[in-house]
User: Fold this.
Amino acid sequence: MRAPSPVVAFVPGVAAGAALLVLALLTRGRGLGAALFLAGGTYVAAVSAAGDSIDASAPLVAVLLLLCGELSAWSIDERLDIRAEPRLAWRRGAAVSALATAGLAAAVLVVALSAVPSSHGLALTVLGAAAAVGAAGTGIWVARR
Amino acid sequence: MIGYTSPRLSAYATLAAAGLVAGLALGRVEPIALAGPFLLALVAAVAGHAPRVSVSPSLDRERAIEGDEVTATIELSSTDTVGRLELLLRLPPELSVDGETARAIHLPAGEEQTIELQLRCERWGVFTVGQVLFRARDTLGFRSWEGSAGEPRPLRVFPAEETLRSLVAPLETQVFAGNQVSRARGEGIEFADLREWRSGDRLRRVNWRATALRGSLWVNEQNPERNTDVVLFLDTFAEVRAEGRSTNDRAVRAAATLAHLYLQRKDRVGLVGFGGFLSWLVPASGMRQLYAIIEALLTSQVVHSFALRGVDVLPPRTLPPKALVLALTPLLDNRTAAALLDLRARGYDLIVVEVSPLEMVAPSPGSSLELAYRLWRLSREALRWRYEQVGVPVVTWREDEPLAVPLEEVNAFRHLARPA
Assistant:
């Protein structure tokens, strides 16, 4: 018996994520986090099901998810009846582009570092631990705001 | 200022944490790569801090007339760069701005910016303007700080006045000098009659032509110029309001116009606000009285009440004898109707200007409300008839007509039927 294609298997998840994204746009941002979470989770499940090989498109998927969030939030902000200076849109566009580029670089770095053999010593281990602590700390700080 | 974080920041934190945990649990790099950009966004959000924004609003004047434009200026500065500063000048519905009231700008550190808003005064009244709500956000909108600035200041919008060529002259005059020719005889300019000379008459009053014709001394008699007392009776028991227009608004405009013009003629003018909230001004003359009347009109509003009120509750000085009582009423409340009939019974020279609400509530043709509308109109006709039976002119001031039209009708009525 032939195994089902991962793409076919995870289409419902992607569709549900897209539906939640539309819902987020209609309900002024509610459900945006769930939509991103569902889309990301579907992707991770798909690559896990596909096999042990590293998916080189992961940084691109990560940046696209971030852009989904940022552009959705931007479009929701634009619905307010505010007369805004035109340069505000340019500035935000530039900031989103910079964030996406930096995010892409960070994700590519992560994927590239994963290719490095794990026997490269203490420095990489300490760096990884510091990054994990920093990420957790940032998450806690944001949650407490 | 109160700080807020965007809800999507929590979502990003959850995503990043879930990605890291999933990466560890599954032993795969893709979830960690997914978490990377979101972690970067969190770092960008953490880097922002509350800016020190200075917002000082001001108005170019504190008094205006309906239809005028008042300039509101908001001066802005900040010690730190604000990616997006959103401002909202709180305005009452009677003041409007072309386009959106809320503005968003980029405010660099140390730079002063000025925003000007042209406020159009749509309706008379006393309003408080000057409080600005602002929100400073970082460029990506991850974090924001909200606050308010500026002291609420009063803006007095006076009612616009109508153009009138003539006023309704009261039947009786008072004892002080004014511009109204009295029906009595005395020292004045207007010629009244001739009579034979009597002891004490001044030589300058002798009419030499009549004396030569008749062979004895005849003197001129004049009508003296006297002032009059006018009481503006504003019915504030009820009003009809539709699409931003109301009968009370028009009545207040008419009262302001009449007060101004009568006071220009050196008459004494008083005001009675007869409704749920009773107010009055004893008749007086001069510019000070005009401002007092306008101030009283600005605060006049329809207050619903079930209290039975008659003119007895008014202080006697409010309604001096021989005063012309000019009532501005939509004829909606029976208490006002009864009070006005009572005034007529007491011998006051009464004129009723009916501020017509009919146009505002006219039902569409074929509507089931047409019958009720016709019955209502008939009951109003009956009330008008009651006034006319006691010699009170009732004139209808329709919405699309100038005030001069009903006043000319009153003058015509008085020429045809001189009241007792």
